[in-house]
Amino acid sequence: MTETPAPDVASPEPSQSSTSTATAPADGIVVRGVARSFGTVHALVDVEMRARAGRVTALVGPNGSGKTTLLLVLAGLLVPDAGEVRVGGVDPLVDSRGARARTGWMPDAFGTWDSLTAREVLETFAAAYGIERAAARERALELLATVHLAEFAGRPASVLSRGQKQRLGLARALVHDPDVLLLDEPASGLDPRSRVDLRLLVRRLADEGKTVLVSSHVLTELEEMVDDAVFISRGRTVDAPVVDARSGRRTWAVRALRLGALTEWLTSTGAQWRPADPGFTAPDLGAPGGVLIEVAGDEGAAQLVRDAVAAGVPLTSLAPASGSLEQAYLALEEERR
């Protein structure tokens, strides 16, 4: 059983003076004490975070927590009421053009001129970034191939499906080869094959040294692509327990050819288990089935398998019941209030 290491929870950046940029790193994203309100609604209250270059950082939080507002601030599309931001080492408030040159922004909904073809959309944005026409055309065709839209290069954007527009939106964010990528629900509307392609592309971009900050409600999707995680709730970044997939306790799903043999053995050892299947009220204990049990990481899981085999329990599978991001999210005290 191979386990993907749990993402690190990005710790807030220590408070530093806002009068000097000398301490800001030359890459990645740094946010210190950022606040943003809309009238009486405090969308961001006191956000502290860092996203490192060469890594994929998840931005995790419930609806209305401030994720999109934070991404808009980082993209230079909203001015914060307080605090400071560095994107690729540049302050968007001081050098808007320089920050945008380093930033690729993919919103959760793709907006474009439907009369333009997919290639023309990318060429238009390339021109806005000062890319020469011939190079822009070459870049557009290259990116359309990357996001598997080459066959739609000459077709109007209006004929594209929701998922295809998402892929075109990703290509648009990459058109100027930015150092920092801000992705808001990038997998929305994508089919399973496209989701896999997205994960592979995001990992490749991070391996090339880019900073990738991605927001999504689908934690299982994030689990497979991220290195670090930032949790946000009610406009604040909050601490979350780090769930270490290798050594920390977590819930595992255990299945066997005969449910009765599994439950009887677990009960005899004093293990605390609960049914994995909703219809457990009147189970056939001689039929296949499974349970959920707390196990201390990979070592605990390996020991469980060894003990079960020694006891003659016919195990068929053992796997984490949920990802580390999901467990960390559910464990947040903020979300229980």
Any descriptors?
single chain, 337 residues, 2 domains, 11 helices
Task: Describe, in plain words, how this protein is organized in 3D.
- The protein contains 11 helices and 14 strands.
- It has 337 residues and is of the alpha/beta class.
- It folds into 2 domains: 8-238, P-loop containing nucleotide triphosphate hydrolases (Rossmann fold, 3-Layer(aba) Sandwich); 249-336, Alpha-Beta Plaits, CATH 3.30.70.
- The strands form 3 sheets. Strands 1, 4, 6, 7, 8, 9 and 10 form a 7-stranded mixed beta sheet that branches.
- Helix 4 (133-146) packs across helix 5 (162-174).
- The longest helix has 16 residues, at 192-207.
- The protein is globular, with a radius of gyration of 24 Å.
- The protein starts with 7 loop residues before the first strand and ends with a helix.
- The relative contact order is 0.15.
- Mean pLDDT is 83; it is low at 1-6, 11-25 and 243-247.
